[in-house]
Design brief:
With 428 residues, the chain is of the alpha/beta class. The chain has a domain of 299 residues: Purple Acid Phosphatase, chain A, domain 2 (4-Layer Sandwich), CATH 3.60.21. Helices cover 27% and strands 24% of the residues. It contains ten helices and 14 strands. Strand 13 and strand 14 form a beta hairpin. The relative contact order is 0.16.
């Protein structure tokens, strides 16, 4: 890719130009080697100066495009006709970028809102505290240092469909920004979601809630359980006297301990959950494919923890998806995974971040009365910053099938779509 980032302001352009110029020096020494994704934890608490340079290089200069996926396939279960059916929409990371203002997002959901919010259950990852007692802290155009997020009610309304739709039924709050506003910020986020009757997963306000594990939603007679875990808390840590606060596991490492996922998955099964959806906030950002640690992790979570769907997040851009088949209690089982759903409602200057995926999962009862995944629809969506500076979440398949763009498209949009078509073909 000739230029991975697209800036809006002259200040942003100047900053990225300077960084890319420095990147040319890095390319002289590391360019050939860093064409391929490095295997590293990408955890700010563990990153060396070399890791930081590599991270900046792949963001501003040359994102890796090579990789091997060896555990997911394109095969799918047959669609079933059943009177007992549940649909579940799953979106990626909701992030408080400063570009997300009410004025710019009036038409954000016009094209894709009905598809996403009309499901029986709607799920995504809230990658920011929502603490109304502290000042909002939004993501700037160009990130040059540590960012501590905190969103407000206006931005949360944008995330939730601009009050035109029902919003979210369940949100993961386990991610690397969970403790950006410290323990108080997370606790106030939990209070806010509880007041809105939104189920939260991946964090707990106290040990009692952690032990109860009541993250099950029943729709149309089918019980769906939700789990969530994060690989990092950036430079924060779970307090020693509050081990239940956030589900933090070293997911990016080699053979991480999955005991917590196994226990919580088994507990939800005992409480009647028929389908388990697991959000894993892990992996490596700004690269087309996951590394081998993550490929192995997803395989293990299916086979050792008996989940049905794994929704990956954190890498900011889409990564491959597909089905995994394994033996469970002497029977063949299939689960669906996507390594990264990408930034969902956000606007990062990195071009690949402007293509996200929505999942629509259909669960039916088969002839034996067992709830199974009967269909998964993957809808790629393009986050368009249009001619007027407004954001619209567009149906990407419709865009690429229509050779005549509408009047909202700029030359920059058309150039970006060409790159995203190339990228999407690469990872499919």
């Amino acid at each position: 890719m000739a230029k991975p980032t697209i800036t809006i302001t002259s200040k942003g352009h100047a900053l990225t130009l300077t960084i890319r110029s420095l990147g040319l020096l890095v390319k002289l020494f590391k360019g050939e080697k860093w064409k391929h994704a490095r295997q590293f934890a990408e955890d700010p608490q563990l990153m060396s100066w070399k890791d930081l340079i590599y991270f900046g290089y792949k963001y501003y200069c040359n994102p890796p495009e090579t990789g091997k996926i060896n555990s997911l396939t394109a095969s799918a279960p047959l669609s079933l006709n059943s009177t007992e059916k549940v649909t579940i929409s799953i979106g990626g990371d909701l992030m408080p970028y400063e570009l997300l203002t009410p004025r710019r997002t009036k038409n954000l959901w016009d094209e894709t809102g009905d598809f996403f919010f009309c499901s029986d259950i709607v799920f995504a990852n809230l990658e920011t505290p929502l603490d109304l007692s502290q000042k909002p802290s939004f993501v700037p155009e160009v990130m040059l240092n540590d960012m501590l997020f905190n969103t407000d009610e206006k931005t949360y309304s944008i995330f939730s469909g601009n009050n035109k739709y029902k919003g979210y039924d369940v949100l993961s709050i386990a991610n690397n920004h969970s403790l950006d506003m410290k323990v108080t910020g997370l606790q106030n986020t939990i209070k806010y979601l509880s007041q809105k009757n939104i189920l939260y997963v991946g964090a707990s306000p106290n040990s009692e809630v952690f032990e109860k594990q009541e993250s099950i939603i029943e729709r149309n007679g089918i019980k769906i359980g939700f789990l969530a875990y994060t690989y990092s808390l950036n430079k924060s840590s779970v307090p020693d006297d509050m081990p239940w606060l956030v589900n933090h596991l070293k997911l990016n490492g080699h053979e991480p301990d999955l005991a917590l996922i196994k226990k919580q998955a088994a507990d939800l099964r005992k409480k009647g959950a028929e389908i388990l959806i697991c959000s894993l906030h892990c992996g490596n950002a700004y690269q087309a494919f996951p590394n081998s640690n993550i490929v192995t992790l997803f395989k293990r979570v299916f086979e050792e923890c008996n989940v049905d769907v794994i929704a990956g997040g954190h890498p900011h851009n889409i990564q491959p998806c597909g089905w995994h088949e394994w033996m469970q209690n002497g029977k063949t089982k299939k689960g669906f995974a996507i390594y990264s759903l990408a930034d969902f409602i956000a606007w990062d200057i990195f071009t690949w971040c402007h293509l996200c995926a929505m999942l629509k999962i259909t669960v039916c009862r088969n002839k034996d009365g067992i709830a199974v995944l009967s269909e998964v629809e993957v809808k790629p969506c393009y986050m368009q910053l249009d001619k007027a500076g407004n954001l619209r979440l567009r149906d990407f398949d419709k865009l690429i099938s229509n050779p005549l763009p509408d009047a909202t498209f700029s030359k920059s949009n058309l150039k970006e779509i060409d790159e995203l078509k190339r990228f999407y073909k690469l990872i499919k």
